[in-house]
Amino acid sequence: MPEHEFAVWAPSPERVRLDVDGTVHPMERAEDGWWRAVVDVAPDVRYGFVLDDDPKVLPDPRSPRQPDGVHERSQLWQPVPHAFSDGDWNGRSIEGAVIYELHVGTFTPDGTFDSAIEKLDYLVDLGVDFVEVMPVNAFGGTHGWGYDGVLWYAVHEPYGGPDGLIRLVDACHARGLGVLIDAVFNHLGPSGNYLPKFGPYLSSGSNPWGESINIADAGADQVRRYILDCALRWMRDFHADGLRLDAVHALVDTTAIHILEEMSAETDALAAEIGRPLSLVAESDMNDPRLITPRDRGGLGMTAQWDDDIHHAIHTAVSGERQGYYGDFGTLETLAETLRHGYFHAGTYSSFRHRRHGRPLDTATIPATRLLAYTLTHDQVGNRAVGDRPSQNLTTGQLAIKAALALGSPYTAMLFMGEEWASSSPFQFFSSHPEPELARATAEGRKKEFAEHGWDADEIPDPQDPATFERSKLKWDEVDEGDHGRLRTFYRGLIALRRSEPDVADPWLDHLRIDYDEDARWFVMHRGSIAVACNLGTDPVEVPVTGDVVLAWGEPTAGDDATRLDGHSVAVLRQVR
After folding, report:
1. Is 515 a known active-site residue?
2. Which residues pair with 180 in a beta bridge?
3. Catalytic residue among 132, 170, 246, 262
4. What DSSP letter does each residue of 331-362 carry, written as one string?
5. pLDDT (tens digit, 9 = 90+) per residue, 256-308?
6. pLDDT at position 224 over 90
7. What is the model's pTM?
8. 381 marked ligand binding residue
9. Is the distance from CB of 193 to CB of 183 less than 8 angstroms?
10. What is the mean pLDDT of the chain?
């Protein structure tokens, strides 16, 4: 059997031993807190670490595989020779692309990487450029959203483990699809979090999901390296084309070089090494353009960021919802302001936060493609009390308007799985914590949270009930039915328009022009010779724009000076210059 060096950073315990299939070996400690041992082992051996006098065998913090779950021994793993066949894949940046966010466990009935592969041709036909998978790191239980990961280097086994992820990425590349992996570095889940036993992985601070990760306190250097190496692993070892970074505003970094700047620099170095572009997409609620400003101009160098202001502006204008953080949105004026400038809150007062929020975006130097526009995300549906989608509350025409505003905008676009056919499935919050007390606390906490906002506690789905998970799976048999099929065709047309019309691909907000009438409820977004005309009201309206109808929901009538739009309808027009 070949020799293998096992290593673990564990500055906290006084003694660390290596357990290999039940046989315990001593380990030697270096001054930097790393423990090492060289042992002859099989290439797929199970192993773990024993700390001090606690007999529990703990998984490797950098575990490459967890075949028996996050509470058990790790397993050595390397991709089989020639696992990838994507040598001809040259990659592409996400800027200006159409991204499709999906949850592996609910995307298909089987909920695996291999079953997702069977739907990739559908995504190619739809016209998307990237698949963004919600977190696939190892977490407690069999199913969940994935944001409770505790072993960030390992791939969730019920999805198909690391080999299954390789098959999915390789299959995407074979079809010309890029892959983004959702990575969570701002907190650890409650089930199977053994990292604090090894060293100072956690800080003294906290965020809404638990204790914060230590990236700036004493001992932070190795924790930062843990994060950076994990980020690079997804792109180097699994050939992902980039990462979506969860809630980076919760990464509290008081050092002179922010960890995101380090990650950006190391990602660019890896991209140069492998010869294809790699993208980092940050989720942030700070409205801080420094996040997407290049490093050589004093920014953090993220490729792009999620933009919730765009979502809020579109959703509230169409739906009329105004509760919670939607309170400052809802008018066509707000919609126009947000689409023109990227952020609505840009040093302005936020009634939800009770303070000023955001910073203006320099639209002359930062292209719109560094911001993501969307009408739906896992958060915007799953964090609603009952996980209801807009398709369960709005007309199909209203859904078409939302799609046209997002996909017809200058921004990089993103869809959430099933929105393109107005899926009837909710996307509810679900979990499968194996610990009874944690399971009960999760269910009770969810009900209490929404009951405080006026919901009947009996209406709140139990996250631990397997039926909540099953209800959230897409129903693929409805894709071509009636309005479902019509809406999917409309989405396909909008996506194709982004490729075929140079004016629609223009990334500069300074070239965007918007007209609207608050009382008549019409809204027009001008993209050069292309105009996206919407009627957000229920009654027919004359919109003062005309041209050849390229794409429409409803039956528009284009006259010499105006176009008549039915209620809840939209038309894409090519104007004669």
Report:
1. no
2. 132, 242
3. 246
4. SHHHHHHHHHHS-S-SSEEETTTTEEE-----
5. 999 999 999 999 999 999 999 999 999 999 999 999 999 999 999 999 999 99
6. yes
7. 0.97
8. yes
9. no
10. 96
Domains, the chain, with CATH or none: 3-58 (2.60.40.10), 98-232+245-266+280-295+303-499 (3.20.20.80), 513-574 (2.60.40.1180)
d(CA 167, CA 79): 11
Q: What are phi and psi of 446, to 5 degrees?
A: -65, -45
* Residues 397, 539 contacting (CB under 8 angstroms): no
Helix H or strand E segment including 569: strand 569-574
pLDDT in tens, 455-485: 888 889 999 999 999 999 999 999 999 999 9
- 246 is an active site residue: yes
Q: Which residue, among 159, 129, 104, has the nearest Cα to 505 in the 3D structure? A: 129
Has 308 been labeled as part of a binding site? yes
Read off the pLDDT of residues 478-537 as tens digits, 9 standing for 90 and up.
999 999 999 999 999 999 999 999 999 999 999 999 999 999 999 999 999 999 999 999
- Helix and strand numbers (H, E) in the chain are 15, 29
* 244 annotated as a binding-site residue: yes
Asked whether the beta carbons of 43 and 78 are under 8 A apart, the reply is yes
What sign does the dihedral 100-104-109-115 (CA atoms) show?
positive
pLDDT at 453: 67
Q: Which amino acid is at 564?
A: R
| Residue of 101, 170, 241, 283 marked catalytic | 283
Q: Is 548 annotated as a binding residue?
A: no
The H or E element containing residue 131 is strand 130-133
Going from the C-alpha of 113 to that of each of 52, 63, 158, the distances in angstroms are 39, 20, 9
Q: How far is CA 431 from CA 80, 149, 272, 386, 442, in A?
A: 32, 12, 39, 15, 8
